[in-house]
Amino acid sequence: MGPLVRTLRRGLAAAAVSTLAWSCAPASPPASSPGHDHAHMQGMEMAHAAGTPEAEAMRAYGQCGKLPAGAKESCYEPVVLGVLHASGIPGAVQTLDHLAMMDRDVKRDAHVYAHAIGIAAYGAPEEVGKTFAQCTPDYQSGCYHGVIQAYFMDPRRGEAVTEASVNALCRDYRADEKDRWLQFQCAHGMGHGLTMYYDHDLPRALRGCDLVQSGFEREACYQGAFMENVVNALMPHHPAAALMHGAHAGMEHGGMEHDQGAMHHGMAMGEASGPKYKALDPKDPFYPCNTVEDRYQSACWGMQTSAILSFNGQNVAETAGLCDRAPEKWRVTCFISLGRDVSGQTLQNRTEAIRKCALADTTYQPWCHVGAATNMLNVTAKAEDGLAYCREVAGEANKSRCYQAVGEQLLVLVGNVPGREQACATAEAGYVDVCRKGARLAAQAQASAK
Q1: What HEC string does 266-283 produce?
Q2: Domain span at residue 339?
Q3: Number of domains the chain is built from
Q4: 349-372: per-residue pLDDT in tens?
């Protein structure tokens, strides 16, 4: 049993069930801005005297709220992390809660801020499980992912990326279905971490994910890798980028004080046998999905509309048209991705999200609603938020797909049959059985009867 498994096993026993983070993707333009450095200084000045989470959020909003969207993150982030160091993860999350209520830009990118909390909260390899356990499922579980990212970038962990190490990482969450969400968060965070570990060389990170034997974890790892690829390209000042730069600096100035594992880590971070991998291509809306192998396609198309929308000015109708032109095998995935992004664009406003999904051709429109509904569920980890969206959607085809997809999410979100039964029972008359089908409740009942 490796050090990460031992520490996670101790720390995660009390951790809350978390949400599928791949459902959250950047909906904002790149964070670079002429005001970035000035905004960062403002944030640093405010971070030195952390008060209550609400007071700090209000003070930060007064200083940062009127800045351009791309400059806000570097202004707000030091404040959130100042509260983290003074009050721990709960205080930092509460500060983020207040900021998200006051500032739409923060609410839209709250998952990225949550990553920053997890990254900054991480202290040492032997404490990773304890830190992970303090995170919450808020904001698509970004805190969990940040902790795992920081662990991967820590040369002190002393483990090379091998088949044994990646399969040991999440093995304690495979036996009990109640741990399904934590299993996902662990594997998804691994995808982020591997991409950073290999200096955002996406093909190498994906090959690292290939070593994972569990199909569920392997796909979650792929999703994390593609998400990190997109986020790093579109938001170059996001916290994981700063973490990676710090890791480079640490390897350059750390001398020979670390062990062989650290040396391997330095080699992985520093190897550059060719030109740096091109993450995205503004001139090719289907890149990199049209270049990767078939086993990576689902995870790639599951993130692709985030890149497309960033390059076309958040034009949903145009993006829907591009999904229509995607390879037929992946069109459904493309439209689910679009629905997720529509949910993010509208800040989970059901009426607006339904209106935007209606811009898609009727053939694939149900899948846009699937993406929107499941994202709304995943944002809060509450079944009702997905079911409420399905109730407002018009059309039998849209409703059926919506309710079945929510049921499928419940299969992972709710680790017990009575809980899934209770959630599906609140669906509209005529769609309860559709939700139950997605949640595999009939199959569970038949299995219990044998």
Answers
A1: HHHHHCCCCCCCCCCCCC
A2: 307-449
A3: 1
A4: 999 999 999 999 999 999 999 999
